[in-house]
What we know:
Largest sheet of chain A: 4 strands, parallel
Distance between the termini of chain A: 62 Å
CATH architecture of the largest domain in chain A: 3-Layer(aba) Sandwich
Largest interface: A-B, 56 and 56 residues
Helix content of chain A: 25-40%
Oligomer: homodimer
Amino acid sequence: MVRLVDELARLPGIGRRSAERLAFHILRSPRDHAMTLSRAIADAKQNVRPCRVCSNLAGAPGDPQGSMCSVCGDPRRDRAMVMVVEQARDLIALEQTAMYRGVYHVLMGRLSPLEGVGPGDLTTADLLRRVDEPSANDPAGGAPVREVILALNPTLEGDGTAMYLAEELSKRGVKVTRLARGVPTGSQLEYANKAVLADAIEGRRPME
Amino acid sequence: MVRLVDELARLPGIGRRSAERLAFHILRSPRDHAMTLSRAIADAKQNVRPCRVCSNLAGAPGDPQGSMCSVCGDPRRDRAMVMVVEQARDLIALEQTAMYRGVYHVLMGRLSPLEGVGPGDLTTADLLRRVDEPSANDPAGGAPVREVILALNPTLEGDGTAMYLAEELSKRGVKVTRLARGVPTGSQLEYANKAVLADAIEGRRPME
């Protein structure tokens, strides 16, 4: 019991008290619930690996695509459009909009000169290879990349990473775009900060 | 003392306890501080009125422009560009970006069919008149309006108001734009909601 509490308390955002509450819950619940949870954790750790095309999470047990993620394995996705994200969690958030029909590329981080993270620590080379040789990693044959959408976080390091990638990609003659920046839908202008309002004025668009 | 507490407690966001604390502070502070505050409140109420051009707050005591606000009274502002906002507080937030050199129009609210607010309850007619006859209200002579930027709140009612105004304005052949909508600078994509991410994908822009 003490070991379970210790292990649970190492999860992010779970303090000692929460860990105790979770541990008691697990002890009180039916045996097969606890075993299912136990197995799910072990399986995830053993079977989930990066997609060999885009580095998204892939390889859930029974996944028919083997070492490809569910997006890259879906023949209906448009392989000519690649959206670059920092991490798989961003991809999940973007997928929830259900409006993007292209594929992704997960960088596995962002450039951070202060923390010593350079292009070699990310999947940058894989991204450039996808543009240079679309069929190299993709058993589905691939398609020439027409547009790369940089969907990095709108932060200092995200912007720096986007600038670096834009330079590398535009050398290759591919169209490079970035997500729109401005006021978030549903918000109030009077509470928006200066940088957000400046982006919104600068990027204003014709009313359609 | 009880009356002062009562009056302070009627201000928004000030509860009974805060009102008591403020009242004690006023009683303890030097006489001239309290009188200055008292006069400032009375003066504001007596002297501040809507700018006769744009309906922004105007007429602070000693204001050389008389019944014009400080933006409309500034000859360096570009009168050919009019940014439409719901209320003066939005104008103040937008001015803090220090990047907009045009003038404003304060609607004094937004269209709200549910609350019975129609175009006649706002300064819509004044806005259209500014476009139709630029010199009518403006002692500086005015200038033909080239662009109207709709800077309404990115909400359901703000959008409805923007659509109504865009229709009225485009009949008059003036260019109509709206603020950019997307991910707010400094935020994290993984925490953005679906609507914000959908706007950001839809409005993506070429990397410059």
